[in-house]
Automatic annotation (TrEMBL):
InterPro entries registered for this protein in UniProt: Cyt_trans-like, NadD/NMNAT, Rossmann-like_a/b/a_fold
Keyword list, A-Z: ATP-binding, NAD, Nucleotide-binding, Nucleotidyltransferase, Pyridine nucleotide biosynthesis, Transferase
Reaction(s) the record says it catalyses: nicotinate beta-D-ribonucleotide + ATP + H(+) = deamido-NAD(+) + diphosphate
Naturally occurring in which organism (per UniProt): Martelella mediterranea DSM 17316
The protein's name: Probable nicotinate-nucleotide adenylyltransferase
Length: 195
């Protein structure tokens, strides 16, 4: 687990990063800037329970590529879920918060994940445990904002102009952040590499 000081604000950005790409870096940099974060952790998962394991590069390879891609000392690449033996975000977040009670964490996700958030194990508990920043991605923004999870959490939505205060807000609290978007996706990169 990266080193932390009490009072810091830290973004948690999970994913398979299979492979990591400029879109991930764009989300990370936008979150660092708009949320005023001290650090942002790329939580490189051993696997994703909602996705097929086919084509998943070895964890060590994805970590190495993520380290190379990050290029910002505030972005910390970690395989904490492998170390903890957790496969689900809710458990990982609870463990991180328990170990660092004086740090302000915020979950970072691309808008495409908001569409499936209601399928995550204990998604309501995640929303009740940590504030969430949803970063816009190319596609159907309005569709993401009308997803089952977005509708269920509608009363907890914070205006984008208050994004900088989000990490210190009591959950549930979430915001949708607009900004530069990248159409690059790990799926497209994997398909292109097979050609």
């Amino acid at each position: 687990m990266p080193h932390l000081q009490p009072g810091m604000t830290v973004g948690l950005f999970g994913g398979s990063f299979n492979p990591p790409h400029e879109g991930h870096l764009l989300v990370a940099k936008l979150a660092l800037q708009r949320l005023g974060l001290d650090q942002l952790w790329w939580l490189v998962t051993p696997g994703n329970p909602l996705k097929s394991g086919n084509g998943l590069a070895p964890l060590a390879e994805r970590l190495a590529h993520s380290d190379t891609m990050a290029g910002d000392p505030r972005i910390r690449v970690t395989a904490i879920e492998k170390t903890l033996g957790t496969a689900y975000t809710a458990r990982t977040i609870r463990h991180i918060i328990r170990r660092n009670p004086a740090v302000h964490f915020v979950w970072i996700m691309g808008a495409d994940n908001l569409g499936d958030f209601h399928r995550w194990q204990e998604w309501r508990r995640i929303a009740a445990t940590v504030p969430i920043a949803v970063i816009d991605r190319p596609g159907a923004t309005l569709t993401y904002l009308s997803s089952k999870a977005a509708r269920a959490l509608d009363k907890a939505r914070v205006p984008e102009r208050a994004a900088r205060a989000l990490p210190r807000m009591k959950p549930p609290a979430w915001t949708f952040i607009h900004g530069p978007r990248s159409a690059i996706s790990s799926t497209a990169l994997r398909q292109e590499s097979k050609r």
